[in-house]
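sorry for the late reply, my laptop died twice this morning and i had to redo everyting from scratch. anyway the thing you sent over, i finally got around to it. pasting the sequence first so we're on the same page, its 159 residues, then the predicted structure underneath. double check i copied it right bc i was rushing
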Amino acid sequence: MVEIYTDGAASGNPGPGGLGVVMLFNGHRKEHSEGFRYTTNNRMELLAVIRALEMMKTTAHPIHIYSDSAYVINSITKGWLFGWLKTGFKGKKNKDLWLRYAAIAPKFNITFHWVKGHASNKENNRCDELAVAARKVKGLPVDPGFVKAEKPSKKRKPL
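ok and here's the structure:
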């Protein structure tokens, strides 16, 4: 079994965001993080799961994904994603990421687990540390799928 812990963070929501992943298998540990200069927390939570699956080198082992994101967990385990796929994501956000997830997830035997964020789960806390650190890096790239424009600059009032 592969254990995967994921978390996302955004400051300002939208604002600078990051994701963190911890993968555990057979005594081995892999950590991953990355950030974007303007994105949302939900995008980072979902992208963390996608990145973890994209990093998998085999589909032979069952995967247990642990996340503190009710948005991600409920969308998948309660079947909301299937409804969104049928309606073309009408009125729903993050279509680009959900389509990526829907394309890769069927290759794996995945079980999702919700964990309480910022609590006693050591690996979830580590993912949070990775995500927060990633969003603080200077010179972050643009989140290519985030549909809102870059944060507008405050307009100055005329003198």
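The domain at 2-135 is CATH 3.30.420.10 (Nucleotidyltransferase; domain 5).
thats about all i looked at so far, will dig more tmrw
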